[in-house]
Amino acid sequence: MSVDRQAAPGGAPSRTIWRATWRAWERAELAFDAVFGADGNPLRHLGALGFLFFWVMLGTGLYLYIVFEGTAEGAYRSIDALSAAALGSIIRSVHRYAADGFVVVTALHLVRELLAGRFTGARWFAWVTGVVLIWFLYASGIGGYWLVGDQLAQWSLTATAEWFDALPLFGLSMVRNFLSSGQMTDRFYALLSFLHVAIPLTLLLGMWLHIQRVTRPNVTPSRALMLGTFATLIALSLIKPVTSLLPPDYGAVPATIPVDWYYLFIHPLMDATSPAALWTMVMLATLVLAALPWLVRVSHEPVAQVDPANCNGCGRCFADCPFGAVVVEPRTDGRRGPGLARVLPELCVSCGICAGACPSSTPFRTVAELVTGIDMPQRSLAEMRSRMERALAGLEGSPRMLVFGCDRAADARVLERPDTGVISLLCTGQLPPSFIDYALRSGADGVLVTGCAEDGCYYRHGNTWTAQRIAGVREPHLRVSVPRERVRVVWAAEDDMANLRAAVEHFRAALTNLPPAESRHAARTKRPRRKEVALG
Amino acid sequence: MNTILRYAAQIALYVAFGAALGYFSSYPVFQALPPDQALVRLSFSHGAKPISPCRERTPEELAKLAPNMRVKLDCPRERAPVQVEIEMDGKPLYQITARPAGLKRDGASTVYRRLPVVAGKHTFKARLADGPDGKFTYVSDATIDLAPGKVLVIDFNAGKGGFQFVH
Fold first, then answer.
1. Which of residues 184-223 of A touch B (CB under 8 A)?
2. Are A257 and B32 inside 8 Å of each other by CB?
3. Contact at 8 Å (CB) between A83 and A242?
4. Residues B23 and B93 in one domain
5. Disulfide: which of A259, A271, B71, B100 matches B79 by Cβ 3.0-4.6 Å?
6. Which residues of chain B make contact with A166, given a CB cutoff of 8 A?
7. Cβ separation of A173 and B18 shorter than 8 Å?
8. CB within 8 Å: B45 and A251
9. What is the pLDDT of residue A213?
10. Are residues B136 and B92 in the same domain?
11. Which domain holds residue B136?
12. In DSSP terms, which residues pair with A306 in a beta bridge?
């Protein structure tokens, strides 16, 4: 089976480099998993950390705004006085380091989504809004430096004005406003204060937009990750408190400038090149990044399809879709049921999680052709059932195991052998739990379900929903009567084959100690197969 | 990985993150100007003379205009470019011909340039031409001792007599 495991731009060599880089990233994530656990792994929650840093900046910024004197004379004095007080110094430093942290996690978030290929198709909206937000992030951050009113502010203001003067927009020279102290007015500082509130609030609005096309966005890190991050910010603020440079001196250029490279790297970059070259670089980078969803060649998978005769509008597909691509509308076809699901093709990422959520997706149904309420044309439930039956029929030896894998995770197909059958799914979330029950009733001694690493599902929630369905806390449940010792769930990223192999061997050894499937089936032969439940 | 080792590794990674945040938030320091240099900022915004002199309209031309538009003098909107030459110690340091701003070229000519120079005592001579004939009508000079890192602003204000050397 040919599987397009990842979108990557360019030809074969660049795809190879791209994939190799992603695999290296995945290895780093796995190493971090071992240290922090998936829940506390910062590399798996970069977006949520971005939100955390923003809230920290907002909280500390409120305090700074209260004590800040927005006048030409008072700006430097008030910030300097704030730093002289212990609490004020910590709050100012936390504000600054949270801003730096925001840049770091934003950059890593961008690289991670880029390497994972999570920017094409329905994900274009989050990607493009994210690229635009980088401008607001930098406008917010650099504006914060200007408020301090020290020599760093003077240098940054002058350099920024020189940069904007390269644009043929105003016809006047902005930098002429920063050549002498007499030109720095109270009104100018009032404008800077306003901008440093208005731009971050616009950034927040943009962050809200950024997550609009995903359901249950991950915007809150785990408690452990929050504590670790807070502790780091406070420790850093105590060890290396942020201080102002000397007041501005318009008659001199500071010999050396302690640049915050996270934000102010653009000034030395302009110094090394030219304002026009810097504009060319940043505009080109912005345009290329923003256009990436359309520059990359990806195969467009068919989207989910609803079969009205088998959909009763229960809303489980709506609840489980990670991208809000399913809506439930009132029925107009006269059939029973509260509504009818409808797929929004422009939002569907073809993961099949909806098919796994549908109560009609059960292999026990006795209809000639298995049709479910919502299904994936490229890998239908009927095809899955027949593949599963073929795999089970072909198993030899003992214990006989069936593995349900995921196209995006560690490649389970390499585990295939006479006593082990493998069915790879679009996403683990495509697996209706009843397939596990069916496999165990049809000759398998054990069923192993595997998918992307914890908190690392390519389709966001597939592995989480599957784990919850098997645990019986999310519909559709795995039946209570299914012997749990014969079911194993293992999360293994694409680059974590060793872990998957080890887990399979461990499970096989555990199954060996259990009674063979025949004896179980013998005891259950009188149990009738489930009749089809009419849902239409 | 046992619990103690995990916590130790967590602390180490948080420390590494904090160290990277703290270090790159102010290091390595940037040298805006080499230690033996000073900075000359040439900066002015000046509206030059019209590109050509005004002329009187002929009676025929006036008759063709609407009654409320019959002004005798026809003056061009476009201004002449501003030419500036700066010399330091008798050698050319910078020269530019700045076009007027605006779609009709009727705005001020604006120039801003950073000119790093070797620190020390220098004689600066500045010339400016703002007419269509290109004659340098404003000429000024000054001898200034520029310490390393010091800034000299060469501004121009016709209302204040021409070039100003601010340091």
1. none
2. yes
3. yes
4. no
5. B100
6. none
7. no
8. no
9. 94
10. yes
11. 37-50+80-166
12. A374
Of A36, A180, A267, the CB nearest to B10: A36
Distance of residue B9 Cα from the nearest chain A Cα, in angstroms: 6
Q: Report pLDDT digits (tens) over B20-71.
A: 999 999 999 999 899 999 999 999 999 999 999 999 999 999 999 999 999 9
Note whether A96 contacts B33, CB cutoff 8 Å: no
Q: What is the pLDDT of residue A296?
A: 86
State whether B30 and A257 contact (CB < 8 Å).
yes
B145 and B102, same domain (yes or no): yes
Contact between chains at B25 and A32 (C-beta distance less than 8 A) = no
Number of domains in chain B: 2
Interacting residues of A110 by C-beta distance below 8 A, sequence separation 6+: A130, A131, A134, A289
Q: Is A255's CB within 8 Å of B166's CB?
A: no
> Which single residue is written with the structure tokens 């009187």?
B56
* Chain A contacts in chain B segment 28-87 (CB below 8 A): 29-33, 35, 39, 41, 43, 45
pLDDT band at A526 (very low <50, low <70, confident <90, very high): very low
Domain with B102 in it: what CATH number? 2.60.40
Residue A273 touches chain B, beta carbons under 8 Å: no
The amino acid sitting at A339 is G
pLDDT digits (tens, 9 = 90+) for A5-29: 445 555 566 778 888 999 999 999 9
B146 assigned to some structural domain = yes
CATH class of A41-294: mainly alpha
CB B110 within 8 A of CB B82: no
Contact A34 B29 (CB under 8 A): no
Nearest CA distance, B131 vs chain A (angstrom): 20
Subunit contact A172:B33, Cβ cutoff 8 A:
no
ipTM value: 0.88
Question: DSSP letter string over B39-92?
Answer: EEEEEEEE---BSS--EEPPHHHHHHS-GGG--SEE--SPBPPEEEEEEETTEE
Tell me what the mean pLDDT of segment B150-154 comes to: 95
The whole-angstrom distance between A32's CA and the closest CA on chain B is 9
Task: Identify which of B9, B22, B114 has the shortest CB distance to residue A240.
Answer: B22
Dist. CA A140–CA A200, nearest whole Å? 5
Q: DSSP string covering A206-273, please?
A: HHHHHTTTSSS---S--HHHHHHHHHHHHHHHHHS-----PPP-TTB--SSB---HHHHTHHHHHHHS
Instruction: Convert the pLDDT of each residue in A90-132 to its tens digit.
Output: 999 999 999 999 999 999 999 999 999 999 989 999 999 999 9
Are both B112 and B156 inside the same structural domain?
A: yes
> Do residue B101 and residue A179 have CB atoms under 8 angstroms apart?
no
Q: Pick from A171, A255, A268: which is nearest to B101 by CB? A: A171
CA atoms within 13 A on the CB side of A282: 17
| 3-state SS, one letter per residue, for A84-126 | HCHHHHHHHHHHHHHHHHHHHHHHHHHHHHHHCCCCCHHHHHH
Report percent pLDDT > 90 for chain B. Answer: 90
Are B26 and B41 in a shared domain? no
Whether B70 is covered by a domain: the verdict is: no
